Amino acid sequence: MAALKSVKGTYDLLPKDRATHRHVTETARLVCERYGFNEVTTPIFEFSEVFSRTLGETSDVVTKEMFSFETKGGDKITLRPEGTAGICRSFISNGLQQQTPVKHYYYGPMFRYERPQKGRQRQFHQVGIELIGVETPQADVEVIAAGYQFLQELGMADDVVLELNSLGDSESRVAYRDKLVEYFTQFEDKLSEDSKNRLQTNPLRILDSKDEGDKEIVKDAPVLTDSLNESSLEFFNTVKKGLDLLGIPYMENPRLVRGLDYYCHTAFEFTTTTLGAQGTVLAGGRYDNLIKMMGGPQVPGVGWASGVERLALMAGEDSVELPRPICIIPISAAQQDEALKVAHLLRSNGYIVDQGYSGNMKKRLNRANKANAVAALLLGEDELARGAVTVRDLESGEQNEVSLDGLVEHLAKFKA
């Protein structure tokens, strides 16, 4: 019988990988809490309409990448491909309009049916924040600052570039859309099939095309900045002024767009070249019409999401160490019961303890070294008769006999 395998596009997070992930997510949580964002968790699956209505029936995520299924009761359900829609659905479901501004932080697995590659899997993880209920540019500045601080505390600020653009308000976007349609119509016969379809449904998404032929045509397309009205320009300038005040470096990228209809004003991405080709590690923007589009009240929002796998790759497995235990080694089977009691005592006092379960003393010491233990407690018949154990510092090799009564205090220097 063939051995069972993991499903394509999924992978196991073994202890060292999980520790790197935890380092990333804990850094995010602590930074976000400092900025006033509190953690929430929404369900891993939602009614499919939560995503199809918000991401757009014609978007790649909806048409090609969603894991959708029908329940026994006939409900159409989708595993969440991103976090924002679920957070906004939760805002509506829980009647949080009276509590604005609402500041949420989240972490969890997302699911997209796409070709697995390094740093991109069918089950992946994101951290993100959403600030709901503030329409002023101050919210955008604060959200971007939180993202920058997060990357800074991971030691990645020098390896990323903040790219910034404005999508303007709906009036500016309509004016820009008209210019795009006029421009791309000249080259309609040269566009890819996807882009031909987008020309009718959402021409902004042609700017995001990965097709090489499309990219050449896009090079000379009109830029959105030229279509911004006065109020949109003022909003964008206020965001830039705020970032300047905080000393957060950025680069304006007039080609940076969000293809979804609910995005407006600020769009931003932190990109890096350390993972090979230029890659986005954290991205976000303002979405003033999303909650209304979902059937809720007209409430503005702004936020970002970041892929944990990509950040973990950038951090590298050497960025964290697994906890280092104290190993307890009975010299013979006769001391096993005492070893169990000592282990329990130390664990109750906050120590990380590993037991050598079997084998002679040499084998157990080898296991202690493999576990990267900080110390070994040797329990021999004579020492226990005196109410003591031998403590060996596995870094220095120094060895002392310590009374059981004073053991907890003596080991304080080995506490994680």
Automatic annotation (TrEMBL):
GO MF, one annotated term: histidine-tRNA ligase activity
Origin: domain of life: Bacteria
GO annotation, cellular component aspect: cytoplasm
Localization of this protein: Cytoplasm
Catalytic activity as recorded in UniProt: tRNA(His) + L-histidine + ATP = L-histidyl-tRNA(His) + AMP + diphosphate + H(+)
EC numbers, comma separated: 6.1.1.21
Binding site for L-histidine: E82, G83, T84, R112, Q126, E130, R258, Y262, Y263
Main location: cytoplasm
Limits of the Aminoacyl-transfer RNA synthetases class-II family profile domain: 29-323
Classification via SUPFAM superfamilies: Class II aaRS ABD-related, Class II aaRS and biotin synthetases
CDD domains found in the cross-reference section: HisRS-like_core, HisRS_anticodon
One GO term of the biological process aspect: histidyl-tRNA aminoacylation
Family according to the record: Belongs to the class-II aminoacyl-tRNA synthetase family.
Protein name (record): Histidine--tRNA ligase
Gene for this chain: hisS
